Amino acid sequence: MLHLGLPPLLVLALVASLAAAFHRNALKQSCSLSKYQFLLPQELKAVQKMKEQFEDIMLLSDRKCNTRLFYRKWSTAELSVPDRVMLVEAELDLATTMLGLPTTPSFAKTRQRPLAFLTQAREDLRGCMASEAPSHQPSKKLRHWLQKLQTAMRTETTGCLEASTILHLFQVLNDLRCVALREECT
């Protein structure tokens, strides 16, 4: 059996507590979503430009979409913080998938910046999910919406999902802001 005196035990205890504190701080730093509380004007302008260009494209098409995926009877603020994180991750997954679809060269160029921004936000959010609440079970409201999303992914056309997602990107950005703000979301 190893016998250590009091000073070496104190040093070991100090090292262990510092390592634990460093590990917690590293997790908190890797999970910082504060940069999404207030989005940069150029990011918002890029999303607005893409949305406007897409609306112009839609005027020329004869798409009839019935998806009401982004219409909810509840607000994001009503969800718990872990539910908000799960909601926004699902929204960002959908958005990055839809913005990554093949399209005309001019529209592909317009959506490069929003796609890069949303992809980075999704990766940042995933880092938080891994460190905060990996075993969280969604509430009934969120579970119902996630099922609605899965159904839409199976039954709606890709064009309708793309249209719904692009037309509601500012809602996704607002939901991201709510996650970044934690408790203070409206």
Summarize the structure.
GO terms for molecular function: cytokine activity. The protein is an all-alpha fold and 186 residues long. It is 70% helix and 0% strand.
Defining traits:
single chain, 186 residues, mainly alpha, Growth Hormone, Chain: A, 8 helices, globular
What would you say this structure looks like, in words?
- InterPro entries: IFN-lambda_sf, INF_lambda.
- It holds the Pfam family IL28A.
- One of its GO terms (cellular component) is extracellular space.
- The structure is a single chain.
- It is built from eight helices and no strands.
- It has one domain (37-184): Growth Hormone, Chain: A (Up-down Bundle), CATH 1.20.1250.
- The N and C termini lie far apart (59 Å).
- The chain is mostly helical.
- The longest helix is centred in the N-terminal third of the chain and has 25 residues, at 6-30.
- Residues 4-30 have low confidence and may be disordered.
- It has helices spanning 6-30, 41-60, 81-99, 105-110, 112-132, 140-155, 158-167, 169-181.
- 70% of the residues lie in helices and 0% in strands.
Largest sheet: none
CA-CA gap between termini: 59 Å
The CATH superfamily appears as Interferon lambda
Mean pLDDT over all positions: 80
- Low-confidence parts: 4-30
Q: Helicity range of the residues? A: 55-70%
